[in-house]
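Re: [ENG-882] Designed sequences occasionally contain unexpected residues at chain ends

Forwarding the minimal case from QA. Structure tokens:
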């Protein structure tokens, strides 16, 4: 007989080439996600890394730089704990269905990232007058539909966004070198944005005096409200306020009893200040207990609620979070044809017998 105390969850595979796998988020309770459980999101196969690995800073700068990855460890370091979420998380929940990786709840992980503030690197390089955006180019390369040839994964931030003090060029994850599958040796970390902004295997930083037009900036990672045309499209940026019920799990069958409903909530636009639960399809709401950590402003918040399940029957437990900016999870998601940013009220169905 297997030892049940040693049973561990696995990643859920969505694709192998490129590798895309979900965190077993319903089974994890630690503040930091162990390396082996960090979700994996790739557009291309894993890159072959040059030796030595150099980070170049070029473009509209006064002093172009070329830095070895190991040099950055001698700079003044900063650490931030970040709930890193793929913008396609919960894509499977959209109706009508949308194309793309059919993520359920696990395209999210939380780690402590350590590195050098990007602002320090840009200040050393010196921004020329008229600099508008900063482009981040990873070592991973491949083909993109509608684009000729092989291209790298590349994204940009405005200069203002790039100079945010908590945007890092990270070289450690949870106190160790960044795992290869998560961006070793250098990864950009943009704490309040969806994960596509945190470019892995960061190899080049280019400051430009115009708007970046790469396909991962202007074609992908855009909200398209219409299935038929591109009217009204706008960019995917900061994480929406969101929540997950970890336990009990959807479609559980449980005896009459008292249960602790538990989960996590997070936002890219302010600290989560409230999580509420409803057991009557939103007719009334009750506050859950939160365990926030003010020292980790970009981390998810754990919450619990004691449920007295005294009568047999079918139940739906709903959760909704509200952040400091006043954003609350809506009843229905903002449908968009690429399936980004799902953050509707979370629902779990339970049978009590």
């Amino acid at each position: 007989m297997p030892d049940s105390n040693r049973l561990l969850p696995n990643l859920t595979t969505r694709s192998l080439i490129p590798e895309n796998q979900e965190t077993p988020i319903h089974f994890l309770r630690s503040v930091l996600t162990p390396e082996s459980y960090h979700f994996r999101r790739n557009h291309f196969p894993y890159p072959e890394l040059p030796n030595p690995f150099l980070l170049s800073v070029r473009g509209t700068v006064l002093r172009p730089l070329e830095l070895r990855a190991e040099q950055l460890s001698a700079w003044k370091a900063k650490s931030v704990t970040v709930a890193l979420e793929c913008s396609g998380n919960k894509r499977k929940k959209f109706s009508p269905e949308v194309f793309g990786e059919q993520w359920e709840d696990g395209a999210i992980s939380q780690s402590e990232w350590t590195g050098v503030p990007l602002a320090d690197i840009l200040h050393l390089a010196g921004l020329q007058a008229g600099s508008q955006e900063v482009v981040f180019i990873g070592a991973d390369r491949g083909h993109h539909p509608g684009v000729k040839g092989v291209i790298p994964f590349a994204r940009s931030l405005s200069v203002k966004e790039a100079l945010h003090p908590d945007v890092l060029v990270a070289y450690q994850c949870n106190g160790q070198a960044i795992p290869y599958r998560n961006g070793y040796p250098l990864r950009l970390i943009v704490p309040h944005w969806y994960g596509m902004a945190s470019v892995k295997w960061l190899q080049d930083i280019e400051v430009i005096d115009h708007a970046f037009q790469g396909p991962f900036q202007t074609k992908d990672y855009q909200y398209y409200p219409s299935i038929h045309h591109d009217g009204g499209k706008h960019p995917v940026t900061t994480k929406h306020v969101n929540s997950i019920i970890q336990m009990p799990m959807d479609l559980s069958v449980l005896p009459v009893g008292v249960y602790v409903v538990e989960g996590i909530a997070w936002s890219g636009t302010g600290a989560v200040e409230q999580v509420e639960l409803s057991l009557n399809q939103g007719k009334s709401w009750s506050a859950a207990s939160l365990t926030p950590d003010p020292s980790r402003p970009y981390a998810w918040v754990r919450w619990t609620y004691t449920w007295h399940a005294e009568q047999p029957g079918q139940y739906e437990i709903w959760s909704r979070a509200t952040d400091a900016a006043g954003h609350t999870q809506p009843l229905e998601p903002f449908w968009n044809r690429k399936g980004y940013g799902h953050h509707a009220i979370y629902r779990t169905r339970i049978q009590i017998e």
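QA comment: On inspection the terminal residues look reasonable. Residues 144 and 201 are 18 Å apart (CA to CA). Proposing we downgrade this to a documentation issue.
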